[in-house]
Structures are given as C-alpha cells and as structure tokens.
Design goal:
There is one protein chain. This protein is mainly beta. It has strands at residues 39-42, 45-48, 63-70, 76-82, 87-92, 100-106, 108-112, 118-122, 127-131, 139-143, 152-153, 159-167, 170-178, 186-190, 209-210, 213-214, 220-222, 224-226, 234-236, 244-245, 265-268, 278-286, 289-297, 305-308, 317-320, 326-329, 333-337, 345-348, 362-365, 371-374, 383-385, 393-394, 397-399, 402-404. The protein has one domain: Prolyl oligopeptidase, N-terminal domain (Methylamine Dehydrogenase, Chain H, 7 Propeller), CATH 2.130.10.120. The chain is built from no helices and 34 strands. It has a six-stranded antiparallel β-sheet, with no helix packed on it. A four-stranded antiparallel β-sheet has the order 3-4-5-6, with no helix packed on it. A four-stranded antiparallel β-sheet has the order 7-8-9-10, with no helix packed on it. Strand 25 and strand 26 (326-329) form a beta hairpin.
Length: 407
C-alpha cells in the first residue's frame, strides 16, 4: 500500500502545509534558479530530453502529474490531469516501459491500496467505485459523504474519509468510517465548527491544520501544522472515535522557536515505524525558510528527541522507510542512514532533483533500496532507484496523448 506521506505507511486524508515526504520548503524561501540539464542521466545511460515528447505530437506541458503511487519495483499507478480538466488513470506493470489507461478521462479522485485494488470517487456525484483487478473493471459500491476528502483504506473493507473545514490556522474535522469497503459510512468523530453544534467526546481540537491517516483498523494518526507554536501529533486506538495527544516534540538544538506569522510555523508528520519505535519528520518555519529535523521516540510518543539533519540547517525532502532507515535530499545532495541517525552517508547527486519551480522533488521509498523522486503539480524530472539512492534512472509516464516529464 502506498500513501502520500511517502516516509510512512499512511495515507493523508486532507491537504496540509506539510504534504508528503516532499513537503513544502516554506513560504519564506527565496526562489532559486532551476538546475536544468539538456539530458537526464542515470548510471551509464543518458536519455535526451527530446525523447520525452509524445509520438502523437501533443505538447506534454498541457498536462500535469496529480498522483503517483508505486506499489512495487514494477507496478505503478499514476493520475495525469490535462489542462482541460480530464483525469487519465494509467498503470504500468513493467517499470514504466508501457502504460495502460485503466479509467476513462473524467473528474475523479483516486485511492490506491495495492497493485490490484483501488477506489475512485466521481467528483460530480460523490459516487464511489472499486476495482479488484488493476482497473480492468470497476464496480459502483456506494457514495461517500458529500464534503469528504479522498477516502483512505487499510484493507478491502476498513476505510475512512474526513470533512475538514479550515480557517485562520484552525480546522474542524468530521470523520466517517466504513466497515464494508465503502458501501456505507458512519460518523465516528466530530469537531464542532464555530457556527455551532456539539463535538463528540474526545474529538480532535480545532487548533492548527491537520491531516488524518490510519495504519490498521484501529490505529490512526493526526499530525498538525501550526502557524505559531509547536505542532502536536494525535493518535486514536479505536478507529478514529477518540483521540489523544502524544507528548510535545522538543525543538532540536540550534533550531529557533517557531515564530508567529504566515511565513513560519511548525509541522510534524505521521510517524514511521512499529510501536513503540517511532520516527517523524519535523519541519520548522523560520523567517529565512524551513529547516528539517527528525523526531524519534522509543516510548510510543511518551517522550521524543529531535535532531536537525546534519550540516547547515535547511529544508530536506525526507522519506522515512521505518524508524531506522531514512532517505533525504535537498535537491543537490543525498543523505541516508540505516540506524536511526547514528551514522550518515552523504553524496553529491549526478542528477537534478528540483522541479520547474526550483522546489525539491518528493521522495518516496518502499524499501531502503527502492525509491522514487517526482513532483506533483509542477513539471519536473521523474527518477527511481533500486540501490538506496546511489544511482537514479529516469522514467516517463504516458497518459492518453501526453508524455511526462515535459522535458
């Protein structure tokens, strides 16, 4: 199962400033010139950018990558959206050599459980469809609550979707759960909005922006991004009905306290690892940009220790495979540790890991060796590695008349 917080085994249910392992670099960053090469090289192979233009002659910049969900070394899903608003769902079973269109262009939202099982939500009607055969056939199984974000499933039957209202740095969450694969939904938790109504017992507080994710039918996580003050990680052990806060993560040495203001703040990710050994990404906003730290706990979140990534404090796109195997890049340098940060390896990348806006690509690692680097919503290179980031190979996505990357 793959999820947008590539560092973990969890799916984000709603948008946040943190996003995925390729979290935003911070609103205070200064634009940097993109490092674009005329060729994309990996190992001993160089592929000229002209090879990425569609054989059909269509300009590939007319479409953007919206979702990328690799499930193994060979099977990957991708959603490509044209500028006309149509979504192309495609799938490869040979590491990107050939792509098959598995859903007709429409305005849909998708969730991918594994190589074969996926759901799609018809945005116009909230109808929920499911496939068990890699998209060859789809069957309508019900609808989701009208204002829900993308549903999240941990198996064929247990899933959640959340309505999240946000304003002025706060969010109000109404969480629904299904026990039958999406055929029916029950509200399990509600944070009352300012307009009125009652909150359910031990629901999530309204402060700060939140995402929600689950790793089992019972265990859920709700990390925060706070514009001012420290972010808190909440957890549920009863399928999302009741939530409680884990202890606050202390700021690492050499990190300034998060400042109030739109440019700054602090965010924590849902954790990777198996309880009680946990690791989370901690992004700290400053007036000069975002800096990245890693928070670890050996007590299931009862206490934490946070350390900055070695070197000059700055933003790192981070993938936490588990509580010990971490992979990071700042776009030029790649860093890896296999023992929870006790020892690090660092090397200069031979390929560009920045997109057309100069932002660092998102990292997603399925294992300590198998990883991907890509950008959602912005044109950028697509890379994958099978040796833990030592070498990177380019790949392309073909969806209808479009080929990504554009160059």
């Amino acid at each position: 199962m793959i999820h947008p917080f590539a560092a973990t085994t969890m799916t984000v249910l709603a948008m946040s400033v943190l996003g995925t392992a390729g979290a935003q670099e911070g609103l205070a960053k200064s634009p940097a010139s993109a490092e674009r090469a005329t060729t994309m090289c990996a190992s001993a192979t160089c592929i000229a950018k002209d090879q990425y233009w569609s054989a059909a002659g269509t300009n590939p910049t007319e479409a953007q990558l919206q979702q990328f969900a690799p499930e193994s070394a060979t099977t990957w899903w991708a959603v490509v959206q044209s500028m006309a608003g149509a979504d192309y769902l495609v799938r490869t079973t040979d590491s990107g050599t050939r792509w098959e269109e598995v859903s007709s262009p429409a305005s849909d939202t998708y969730y991918f459980l594994n190589k074969s099982v996926a759901w799609k939500v018809a945005d116009a009607s909230s109808g929920l469809w499911r496939t068990f055969n890699g998209g060859a056939t789809w069957r309508k199984i019900g609808t989701i609550p009208r204002l829900c974000e993308t549903p999240d499933f941990v198996d064929d039957v247990h899933g959640w979707c959340a309505e999240i209202g946000a304003a002025a740095g706060s969010s109000w969450v109404t969480l629904y759960r299904t026990l039958d694969g999406g055929a029916s939904w029950t509200m399990v938790s509600r944070t009352a909005p300012p307009t009125g109504g009652a909150s359910t017992p031990e629901s999530l507080p309204a402060g700060c922006d939140k995402t929600l994710s689950f790793t089992s039918p019972n265990l859920g996580w709700a990390p925060e991004w706070c514009n001012g003050g420290s972010a808190v990680l909440y957890t549920s052990e009863d399928g999302g009905a009741r939530w409680y806060a884990l202890s606050t993560v202390p700021l690492p040495v050499r990190a300034a306290a998060p400042s109030d203001g739109l440019c700054c703040g602090e965010g924590i990710s849902a954790p990777a690892g198996a309880w009680p050994e946990l690791a989370s990404i901690l992004n700290i906003g400053t007036m000069t940009g975002t800096i990245t730290a890693i928070a670890t706990s050996s007590t299931g979140g009862a206490s934490w220790r946070a350390v900055l990534v070695p070197g000059t404090p700055r933003y790192w796109s981070t993938a936490l495979v588990d509580s010990r195997h971490w992979r990071l890049t700042d776009g030029r340098t790649f860093m890896a540790t296999n023992d929870g940060g006790l020892h690090w390896r660092s090397w200069r990348l031979s390929v560009s890991m920045r997109d057309a806006t100069s932002s660092v690509l998102s990292l997603q690692f399925l294992t300590p060796d198998l990883g991907f680097a890509y950008s959602v919503g912005d044109d950028g290179p697509l890379w994958w590695t099978r040796d833990g980031g030592a070498t990177w190979r380019p790949f392309r996505i073909i969806a209808g008349p479009f080929v990504l990357p554009a160059r």
